[in-house]
Amino acid sequence: MGLFLDMREVRGWVGQMARGRKVLNLFAHTCSLGVSATLGGATRVLNLDVSKTYLEWGKANYGLNDLAVDPHDFVFGEAFDWLGRFARRRERFDMVIVDPPSFSSTPFSVVRDYARLVEAAAQALGPGGILLAATNHASTSGQRFEAWLDHGLSDARRHGHLLQQWQEPAADFPVPPGRDPYLKVRALALD
Ligand SMILES: C[S@@+](CC[C@H](N)C(=O)[O-])C[C@H]1O[C@@H](n2cnc3c(N)ncnc32)[C@H](O)[C@@H]1O
User: Fold this and answer.
1) Which of 49, 74, 85, 96 to mutate to test the pocket of ligand 1 (most atoms within 8 A of CB)?
2) Each residue of 139-153: pLDDT tens digit?
């Protein structure tokens, strides 16, 4: 329920990469990436969103996939607030997913806050951890998005190398001639 169809390939990749990893799924929405990670053998998946309604959908999606629902894995809260808590507790993850909304009722702004989000997410990743960063902000170019990733990693004093990247799947969402893809997703392995 409540799937972003253009993230299908990313869900498949998360399922392949999750085995043995502790995953933080920020901006979890209906927890579809959390479902993929759990099905893929993650040791733990923490889904976090500011919407209790979407988290309830997420629990339903776990149920539809015959996955056990542990209420502790569905956290109602704001991403920066929780990243701050994890930093204070020195809690680290092996994969952190950031997929904030392009337009939000919360004060989060993609253009203003993405680099800071990457910085905070990188601090929640242990050595060898994977940062999966996405945006469907149409007026942001791939180059600008990558500059935010570089900036955030540099502020966190971390380095990352690109593992994989995606745009909207051509079969279902062909990019009109002369236009850039709206979806930009990058998976980075941090040192
Ligand atoms: C683009 S959707 C995420 C899609 C999801 N990754 C997926 O593939 O299904 C953005 C989500 O971020 C949540 N959100 C918005 N602002 C937030 C914030 N500051 N902290 C945490 N979640 C937030 C919204 O409720 C929404 O569910």
Assistant:
1) 49
2) 999 999 999 999 999
Q: Are 42 and 18 in contact (CB under 8 A)?
A: yes
Q: Which atom of ligand 1 is nearest to the CA of 10?
A: 8
pTM over 0.85? The answer is: yes
Cβ burial, residue 80 (10 Å; 0-12/13-18/19+): middle
Query: Is ligand 1 within 6 A of the CB of residue 116?
Result: no
Q: In whole angstroms, what is the distance from residue 62 CA to residue 55 CA?
A: 10
Residue 3 alpha carbon, nearest atom of ligand 1: 9
Task: Report the helix count and the strand count for the chain, using DSSP H and E.
Answer: 6, 7
Ligand 1 atom at minimal distance to the Cα of residue 102: 1
* 29 within 8 A of 41, measured Cβ to Cβ: no
